[in-house]
Design brief:
Elements (H helix, E strand, L loop, with lengths): L1 H13 L7 H7 L2 H29 L10 H12 L9 H12 L9 H12 L3 H15 L1
Helix pairs in contact: 3-5, 5-6, 6-7
Length: 142
């Protein structure tokens, strides 16, 4: 009985039943839900950055010679990459470009947050970096 259970468990691990991709989830959403998702992703990134900045300032308060290390600056740069400055409050544009990104079969397995980052960077005018991140994500997730 136990060996049968283990065999079924390993078969389930090796051949999972759920074959859905991030693109399937994205395409199942309505347009208002897509805009709400992008708005939530932007809000989450902004809130994470704000809370981190507050925690760092509390931790090093009173230390006049403290300089933020590079990894904190890089963390803030990566968070800022997820939020497009040029688009402003027109989140329909980001949702439409994520739709366009997922229209290609090569991009089906790219996670949603990665897709939003790629689209946001491209919308801010850094097309070469956006294309490089897209190729990197295609290689990583396919």
């Amino acid at each position: 009985m136990r060996t049968m259970f283990l065999l079924l468990f390993f078969l389930n691990v090796l051949f999972p039943q759920d074959k859905s991709t991030p693109a399937d989830y994205w395409q199942s959403l309505s347009q208002p839900e897509k805009i709400a998702f992008v708005n939530g992703a932007y809000a989450a990134m902004s809130t994470a950055k704000m809370h981190h900045q507050t925690a760092v300032s509390k931790q090093y308060k009173g230390q006049a010679n403290w300089v933020p290390p590079y990894y904190i600056e890089r963390y803030y740069e990566i968070i800022d990459e997820h939020i497009s400055k040029e688009v402003g409050s027109n989140l329909e544009l980001i949702a439409g470009h994520v739709d366009a990104l997922y229209s290609s079969f090569d991009n089906y397995k790219i996670p949603l947050m990665e897709a939003i980052r790629i689209v946001s960077i491209s919308q801010d005018g850094d097309r070469s970096k956006g294309n490089w991140l897209l190729l990197k994500a295609q290689k990583r997730y396919n």
